[in-house]
């Protein structure tokens, strides 16, 4: 039987309410909007979402604690675009007022063990009012400073200073003291 978008939305809201009651999904604010097909995967983990957050359709939040507890924290007034994926094996933190475009990948892990018996996890921290362009990739161990801009298609492998514009593969600073407006 085909279901309407409203029916799917209600099912998803019921799932979120159930997860909230079980302490698996924390929503601090009053408004969380999720598009169709949002996937939330958790194991030994916590996902915290601030107020007025928008997860566009087909986003994926994966907090999968295999070697310890995993956390994803998303600040208030943050927008995450279609098909963007956030993977945490340890810790991914996104600040307030961020705009993350479509098809982005943010991860604190590689999902493999290369030359070692343990997978390597390094936390990812994205500051406040950061803009990440479409198809950007943010890799493990990266801190992006407040007010920074990551250009479309960039692969960020190193820390990004506050209020700077980075671009390329690997991303490098191409402009400093940038100001952007949502």
Write up this protein.
The protein is mainly beta. It is built from one helix and 20 strands. The radius of gyration is 16 Å and the shape is globular. It starts with a helix and ends in a 6-residue tail after the last strand. The relative contact order is 0.10.
- Strands, count: 20
Q: Helices and strands, in N-to-C order? A: HEEEEEEEEEEEEEEEEEEEE
CATH architecture: 3 Solenoid
Structural class of the secondary structure composition?
mainly beta
Overall shape: globular
Summarize the structure.
This protein is mainly beta and 182 residues long.
List the helices and strands and how they pair.
Elements lengths: L4 H17 L3 E3 L4 E3 L4 E5 L1 E5 L3 E3 L4 E5 L5 E5 L4 E2 L4 E4 L2 E4 L4 E2 L4 E3 L16 E3 L4 E2 L4 E2 L4 E2 L4 E2 L4 E2 L7 E5 L2 E6 L6
Parallel strand pairs: 1-4, 2-5, 3-6, 4-7, 5-8, 6-9, 7-10, 8-11, 9-12, 10-13, 11-14, 12-15, 13-16, 14-17, 15-18, 17-19
Antiparallel strand pairs: 19-20
